[in-house]
Amino acid sequence: MGQIFSSVREEEEVNPPPAKKIKTEDFNTQMMPPPPSSAKASKLISLLVELNGGKPLDLAVISAINSACSSPNSSSIAGTTTEETLNSTLNKLFTDHVGQSPQIVINHAIQFASDYYDRETNLFNETEMRGGNPPIRGRDVQDEWFDSPTGSFAKGPRPDYKVWLELFLGEERVEELLDGSFPLRELHDKDADVPAEEHVVWEALKDEVTKLPLCDLLLNVLSYVRSKSDECEDRVDILRFAVLYGLDGVTRDLIQGGYGDLDDDLTIDTLLELSDEPIRHHGFEQKFYLSPLHLGAILGYPNIVLTAINELEAKIDAPLGLQGASTLGDLATYDHLSPSYVMEWVILKNMKAMLKTLIEDCGFQFRWVFHGNFKATICKRIFELAEYEDNPRWSGGLLEEDYAFESSRVRRRMRSAAAYKEQMKMLDCLIDLGLPFALLFPTEVKIDELDQLHKAKKLETSKQNRDYMRSLSRKEREAIDLAAEMSSSYNSLKNSEAEMLTLSDYYRMLKKKWEGKESQVARLDEFEALDPTWRAERRRQEDGGREDEESDDEHSYGSGSSYEFPCDY
User: Fold this and answer.
1) How far is CA 496 from CA 407, 424, 504, in A?
2) Global confidence as pTM
């Protein structure tokens, strides 16, 4: 442990001056800070003083740093009060200036590297099974994971696993570790003993970084961020870096003036690029921009989201930015879109933990997305059955090697069943978090009426089906269509007709999932602009209670088949 040096000089033996009485409360203010115990301690103290606005650190903090930097394993020693105090001090410094905790920040990196390595390994194995020819997909597996879940119209944020390792260990150590390794996609023509870069990074994160003394970890991260901030011409870039790698403490420091002068233009609602790589769409390039709160959400960092909301007073309804032109022109912003866009992203990407954070800790509302196109897209994702699920977030962990020697029919059923289980897990998550049944079915299906018509054999011919559907309102038809799609997917996985359910029985089973569950309370007065269902209800009331129905006249579909009953009852 480093010694705390006293600033009170030893009295001279010859002619000592009269003793001066020092008040107890003034003693600490008259003490000089102890000198750094090592070059490492000196650098760490210097970085922390800079982040403290140039003000000296507390003597206890300096003593803890000196002690930690002079003892290689001090962060892992336990048992004494002194060591507990030392670790508590270092953990607080990490929380204040890096992230919520060392474990959380490192686990984010390990999880990212592990998932990335798994996807690349699966792709490598599939390619090897095809004699070196990669499988044919509509989108690259990594693009499918990171980019917009509604198509290829927005590049998503994509951290770099090597940068995470550099953040924790320094660039020189990472260069040494990766020497001689190659990415998995380049290993097909390499010798069998050549290591995969993704594997080396993953192993280093879980074996070396997790054992790093806390003082070293703190120093490495702050040094890397300091160097990164010197390289960035715009402080917005370093803010995006902090969010991209889940560093909520760095985010807080930047907003409060750390790593440079306090900038009034840099706030917790400053719009950040989703990706530094533009995407071409219909002949021109475009980029999307979100606030740190929303960017942190689609990256899956609860610590970024909660710090932005609880400490930095981020706006839930911060605008969405779009930059699109032949040469990427001015940035246009759109109000009241970001929260719905983020919620849709999180649901479609199967990010249950983040969805729970947004709903329970931040007050996001299901009403913002369960309407119009948002609702249609989400329902399709959760209830529609896909014969080939190529999205790794929804595949249910099923690998090609699991069904490589099965017939094509069995393979399709295995893929569909594994994905459907994931989809039902998301439905259960939505229900547990308070999704009101009325948002899924604003108008209920008249199942008792359907049962009676079925028993009376009045829904057996196409004409009877059309006549019944034409007798319903638009909203009643939409409810039946949705229930029919859901039941069709459910029945497609059954092995026999005896296991299948009628539309009415499926609807009853579905509705039973909500029994005993509490529905989310609408925050209408706070977020009316985000709630189109609320605005529609207000318009209906202003119109004297008249339903805002579209015309029920038959569209020009020839036989009128669009009004037939949507499935075999």
Assistant:
1) 19, 21, 18
2) 0.85
65 by Cβ neighbours in 10 Å (0-12 / 13-18 / 19+) ranks as buried
Cβ neighbours around 202 below 10 Å, total: 22
Say whether 280 sits in a helix, a strand or coil.
strand
- Three-state SS for 563? helix
Round to whole Å and give the CA distance between 175 and 173: 5
Buried b (16+ CB within 10 A) or exposed e, 140-157: ebebbbbbbbeeeebbbb
Q: What are phi and psi of 424, to 5 degrees?
A: -70, -30
Token digits for 105?
A: 């920040």
Token representation of residue 527: 């977020």
Q: Which residues contact 406 (CB under 8 A, 6 or more apart)?
A: 414
> 257: closest CA among 235, 273, 240, 241?
235
Phi, psi (rounded to 5 degrees) for 395: -75, -10
Question: CA-to-CA distance for 444 and 468, rounded, in angstroms?
Answer: 16
Q: Which of 324, 311, 316, 229 is nearest to 269 (CA)?
A: 316
Higher pLDDT, 338 or 543: 338
> Cβ(144)–Cβ(268) under 8 Å?
no
Pairing of strands 331-334, 272-273: unpaired
Half-sphere exposure of 463 (CA within 13 A, CB side): 0
Residue type, 526: E
- CA–CA dist 451, 444 (Å, integer): 15
pLDDT tens, position by position, 183-200 = 999 988 888 889 999 999
Task: For residues 165 and 159, give the distance between their C-alpha atoms in angstroms, rounded to a whole number.
Answer: 11
pLDDT tens string 464-510: 989 999 999 999 999 999 999 999 999 999 988 999 999 999 999 99
Nearest to 248 by CA among 158, 308, 295: 308
Q: Is 266 helix (H, G, I), strand (E, B) or coil?
A: coil
The band of 70, judged by pLDDT with boundaries at 50, 70 and 90, is confident
Amino acid at residue number 409: R
Q: For the segment 516-559, what is each residue's pLDDT rounded down to a tens digit?
A: 999 998 776 778 788 776 666 666 777 766 554 444 333 322 33
Helix %, strand %, coil % for the chain, to 5? Answer: 55, 5, 40
d(CA 127, CA 188): 9
